[in-house]
Amino acid sequence: MTGEPSISVFFPAYNDGGTIASMVITAVQTLRELTDDFEVLVVHNGSTDYTPQVLAELQSLYPTEFRLLDYPYPLGYGGALRIGFANATKDLIFYTDGDGQYDPRELKNLYQAMAPDIDMVNGYKMQRHDPLHRVIIGGLYQRVVKTMFGLRLRDVDCDFRLMRRGIFDRITLTERSGVICVELMKNIQDAGFKLAEVPVHHHFRAYGGSQFFNLPRIYRSLRGLAKLWVRLVLLKRVGRTPQVDEDATALGLPETSSARKNA
C-alpha cells in the first residue's frame, strides 16, 4: 500500500467503557486495509466508569498503533476535539465519538470519496436512531444552525468526518463545548475548502447516555451558539474582524504522562 496517505483516527471518550474497545479495535482493523501508516488516538477526559481500565488494556494490545491522551478531568467536547486535532500527526484526520453510534468500518466510504480536489468528507445520517425527543430536538437544531450560519451541508452534527490535516493551517478553533462542530464547519466553509458528503449509518446507543440532552446543557449550547454567531457572522457582516483570544486558542492543559509515553 505504498503511496497511500497516512491516517490519524481519534475518538473523544467520556464514560464510554462499554463501547470504546470495539471502536478502537474496529478502527485498527479498518485502517490496516487502507494504509500502512496510521495511528489511533483516544482523548480521554475524566470518566467515572471503567473506561480507564479498558484503555489500559488497549495500550497493551496495540503498543505501537494506539496512543492515549489521558486527562483526569472533563475537557468539554470541544476541548477533546481540539486536543485530538492538535495531536494527530498523519496526512488525513478522521474522528468520531467513542459511544458506538457510528461504525468505524464506514471510514472506508469516506476514504473512497476523498478525491485529490476534496479537503473534507462529511458523513450524514441516513436515519437517526435515537429516542423520539432527541430526533425532534436534533431536527430543530439542524434547521436553526443552518439558517443562522448559512451552512450548506446536509448534517451539521454528524460527527463522522475525514479531513486533510492542512485545513488546520488556515482555521482556528476556540470552542470548548459541542458548539465546536458548528465552528469547525463554518470556518471550513468560509475558508473555501471543498467538501464531499457521504451517507452513513447511525445506531442506537448501546451503553451510557447522552451528555447533551438535559436542560442546563441545552441552555448553555444555545447561549454558545448565539456568541458564536456574533463572532463568525455578525462581526464579519458589519466589516469587523473577529478578535481571537490567544488564551482561548490554547487549552492550557498539561500533557499527561500517558500522552508523553505514547508520543
Return the average pLDDT rounded to an integer: 88
Report strand order across the widest sheet: 3-2-1-4-6-5-7
Helix content: 40-55%
Taking all Cα atoms into account, the compactness measure Rg is 18 Å
CATH superfamily annotation: Spore Coat Polysaccharide Biosynthesis Protein SpsA, Chain A
Report the portion of residues in β strands: 15-25%
For the termini, the CA-CA separation is 24 Å
Keywords:
disordered C terminus; alpha/beta; 263 residues; 9 helices
SSE blueprint and pairings:
Blueprint: E1 7-13, H1 20-34, E2 38-45, H2 51-61, E3 66-71, H3 77-87, E4 92-96, H4 107-113, E5 120-125, H5 132-149, E6 160-164, H6 180-190, E7 195-200, H7 215-237, H8 246-249, H9 257-262
Parallel strand pairs: 1-2, 1-4, 2-3, 5-7
Antiparallel strand pairs: 4-6, 5-6
Brief rundown of the structure:
This protein has 263 residues and is α/β, with parallel strands linked by helices. It is 40% helix and 16% strand.
3D structure, described in words:
The protein is an alpha/beta fold and 263 residues long. It has one domain (7-251): Spore Coat Polysaccharide Biosynthesis Protein SpsA, Chain A (Alpha-Beta Complex). It has helices at residues 20-34, 51-61, 77-87, 107-113, 132-149, 180-190, 215-237, 246-249, 257-262; strands spanning 7-13, 38-45, 66-71, 92-96, 120-125, 160-164, 195-200. Mean pLDDT is 88; it is low at 252-263.
